[in-house]
Every structure is written in structure tokens, then in C-alpha cells.
């Protein structure tokens, strides 16, 4: 096997680990929302416990990428590929952290009866998860157009975030005993908004990977 073939093989393995990490993170996000909606304490605790595996994968990806940079002295797009892998893995890890935060919010609410039916938060999460999926597909396929479409969806998540937080805060006077729950749900909205932001960051890195140019898609 040629030196180039060996390098390409290692790059493929690196991307495979990143995809594995993303799948775990996406599962954690979905499970955290399920734990919140269903007041499933066991599932919430499992999300928190499973975060260790995601962190371990991030460390492995960083070690692999840094080792390739040190040993192979890559230039041009090869260097961008490794640089972007490091950045994308960090964004995915932060998504998983948001899942942990949502799980902790579920634990803070516990078995306390929901003061209102939670309908809009899952809708906001659907938008955010669609962005996660699009950003990762854009990364795998090095698809600039899909990356741009992903970023465009962030405006809708931001709109829902502002709307939901405003509605929650406005409910405080009429539901003073539900203050803890209202605060936790507002936090959850913020965590979902951050998941969307991390997806946008991945999209920006896809564009940098393909073009070598830095774009701020959050403008």
C-alpha cells in the first residue's frame, strides 16, 4: 500500500469515528427530550451516563487527527480535512453536552406534574434535529449547498426560541408554584437553540473544508 493510500485509509477511519460519535450524540439528544416529555428519570440518568462514551470518542478522534498532523505533515486540503475533523468533533461533543443538560432539567422537574401540556418544545427540537442531520450529511458528502440550507433553518429555531421563552416567562404570574418547572423549560429551549447553533458551526466548517474560505452563516 502506498503512503498516500495509507493516509487516505486513516482519514476514512477518522471520519467513520466521527460519524459514530454523531449518531451517539443524536441518540442522546432524542433520549433527553423523551426523558423530559415522559418524566422518565431512568432514561435521563442513562443519557448522562452515556455521555462518557461520546467524550471518549472525541478524545480518540483528536488523538488520531493530531497524530496524523505530526507524522504526515499534511498540507492544503489534507490539513483542512484534519482541522475540520477536530472542529466538528468538538461541535458534536457540545451537542451531546446539551443533551446532558436537557436530561438534568428533566431530573430537576422530576415527577412534578406538568403545569401545561408541552407541545412546542418538541417542534423546536424537530427543527434542530433536522439541522443536525443536514450538517452531518453535508460534512460526509462535502456538500456546500446542503451546508448553506442547514444554516438557513437556524432562523426558524431562533424565532421559536424567542417565542417560547417569552411565553414561558409570561406564565409566571399565573403559575407561581410552577416557577422551577418554567425556569427548567426555558433552559431546555436555550439548550435546543444551542444544538442548532452547533449544527450551523458544522455547516460553516464544511464550507471551509471545500472552499478554504471562512464564512459566518449566523449573520
- Tell me the number of helical segments per DSSP (H or I, 4 or more residues long): 7
Mean pLDDT across all amino acids: 92
- Compressed to H and E, one letter per element, the order equals HHHHHHH
**Major pleated sheet:** none
**Backbone shape:** elongated
Determine the fraction of residues in helical runs and give it as a percent range: over 70%
Can you offer a commentary on this structure?
The chain is mostly helical and 219 residues long. It has seven helices and no strands. Helix 4 packs antiparallel against helix 5 (144-152) and helix 4 (120-141) runs parallel beside helix 7. 37% of the residues are buried.
Note the topology.
Layout: H1 3-38, H2 41-72, H3 76-109, H4 120-141, H5 144-152, H6 154-170, H7 179-211
Helix pairs in contact: 1-2, 1-3, 1-4, 2-3, 3-7, 4-5, 4-6, 4-7, 5-7, 6-7
Amino acid at each position: 500500500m502506498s503512503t498516500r493510500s495509507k493516509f487516505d485509509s486513516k482519514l476514512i477511519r477518522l471520519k467513520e469515528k466521527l460519524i459514530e460519535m454523531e449518531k451517539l450524540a443524536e441518540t442522546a439528544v432524542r433520549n433527553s427530550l423523551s426523558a423530559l416529555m415522559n418524566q422518565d428519570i431512568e432514561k435521563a440518568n442513562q443519557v448522562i451516563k452515556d455521555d462518557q462514551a461520546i467524550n471518549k470518542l472525541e478524545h480518540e478522534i483528536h488523538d488520531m487527527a493530531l497524530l496524523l498532523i505530526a507524522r504526515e505533515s499534511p498540507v492544503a486540503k489534507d490539513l483542512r480535512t484534519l482541522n475540520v475533523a477536530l472542529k466538528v468533533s468538538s461541535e458534536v461533543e457540545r451537542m451531546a453536552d446539551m443533551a446532558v443538560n436537557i436530561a438534568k432539567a428533566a431530573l430537576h422537574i422530576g415527577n412534578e406534574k406538568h403545569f401545561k401540556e408541552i407541545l412546542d418544545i418538541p417542534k423546536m427540537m424537530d427543527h434542530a434535529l433536522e439541522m443536525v442531520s443536514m450538517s452531518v450529511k453535508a460534512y460526509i458528502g462535502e456538500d456546500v449547498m446542503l451546508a448553506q440550507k442547514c444554516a438557513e433553518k437556524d432562523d426558524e429555531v431562533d424565532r421559536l426560541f424567542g417565542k417560547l421563552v417569552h411565553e414561558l416567562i409570561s406564565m409566571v404570574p399565573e403559575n407561581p408554584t410552577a416557577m422551577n418547572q418554567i425556569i427548567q423549560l426555558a433552559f431546555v429551549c436555550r439548550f435546543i437553540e444551542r444544538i442548532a447553533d452547533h449544527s450551523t458551526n458544522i455547516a460553516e466548517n464544511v464550507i471551509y473544508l471545500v472552499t478554504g474560505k471562512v464564512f459566518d452563516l449566523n449573520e
